[in-house]
Amino acid sequence: MPDLHLWSTVIASFLGSFVEFVEALTIVLAVGVVSGWRAALGGAAAAAGVLALLIAIFGHRLAEWNVPAFKIVLGTLLLLFGLRWLRKAVLRAGGVLKLHDEAAAFEEETKELRARAHGEGFDTGAFLTAFNGVFIEGVEVVFIVLALGIGAAKLSQAVVGASSAAGLVILLGVVARKPLTAIPENLLKFAVGILIASFGTFFTGEGLEIRWPGGDFALLGLTLAYTACAVVGVRIARLARARQEVTAS
Amino acid sequence: MKMLRAIWDELIGLFVDDWRFALLLVAWVGVGKLMALHATGAAGPVFFAGLATILLAFVYVRAAVR
């Protein structure tokens, strides 16, 4: 019998981290292009080090708290995280919110950096921008890894998923040397929202002592159910938007 | 200081971008706990249905008030 938790943890961790790393790469590239690669890579490496330390410190300590109350808290945080992400993705797909555009984010970042760039020497501001960008996006990765890894008792596998995503994004960044605009980021965010909301629902349910029909396979059912729900949500958003446009005109 | 503030905002922003949405989700989990949802026959599907309803309601509200 396939270990559903294992594969779904690796896939969710990989996809969720991949999306965040693509956004972090855009910031690092912008800093590198405008202020030099020393500040960009130095800031990114420092942030990655702090984040790895956070996972090392908190990962195994939190994993030992295997009590229902902790599972409810963890599941609820995943629910809030996943459903916030899914709601945004549905609104984007329904045309209510603007789609995320890495090229536009890169333009904006380089414009800001050029405005406050100074001449010679090490640019501390640029270093901090790279650190900040990678750290902020990375905090989401840390949350995804810890929450999925601890909830499913597959912390190492969640780390493997996130590390693979980091490796792939770095490789693509080195090869492309520009923001990864060809990545279907909005579609990925849609999928990640569905996966994390499913995990959140499953873990919270376990914390509430709900017996899921089909055991672990309920996770697959939840993923399908959330997919259907999201498709309905996109339809609702489009209809509401169309009705509003008719009223306005 | 500005950076710490940005990190704090980002941490909160991980879970909440609309307080009403977040509070309703937490309230539904609370209802599940207080009403001993696990004791009912179809606890899992009922729990999911509540969450899906909240999600769809907030999608509609956001799209309709655009």
* Greatest chain-chain contact: A-B, 47 and 36 residues
Helix content of chain A: over 70%
Q: Gyration radius of chain A, to the nearest Å?
A: 20 Å
Structural class by secondary-structure content of chain A: mainly alpha
Q: Helix count of chain B, per DSSP?
A: 3
Count of the separate structural domains of chain B: 1
Instruction: Note the run of SSEs of chain B as H and E.
Output: HHH
In short:
Chain A is mostly helical and 249 residues long. Chain A has 8 helices and no strands.
Description:
The complex is a heterodimer of chains A (249) and B (66). Chain A is mostly helical and 249 residues long. Chain A is built from eight helices and no strands. In chain A, helix 1 packs parallel to helix 6, helix 3 crosses helix 5 and helix 5 runs antiparallel to helix 6. The termini of chain A are far apart. Chain B has one domain. Helices cover 79% and strands 0% of the residues of chain B. In chain B, helix 2 packs antiparallel against helix 3. The N and C termini of chain B lie far apart (35 Å). The mean pLDDT of chain B is 87. Chains A and B meet through helix 3, helix 5, helix 7 and helix 8 of A and helix 1, helix 2 and helix 3 of B.
Task: Provide the fold topology.
The complex is a heterodimer of chains A (249) and B (66).
Chain A: H1 4-35, H2 37-63, H3 68-93, H4 102-115, H5 124-151, H6 155-176, H7 185-207, H8 218-248
Chain B: H1 2-15, H2 19-34, H3 43-64
Helix pairs in contact in B: 2-3
Which descriptors would you attach to this protein?
heterodimer, A: 249 residues, mainly alpha, 8 helices, 82% helix, globular, B: 66 residues, 3 helices, 79% helix, 0% strand, flat
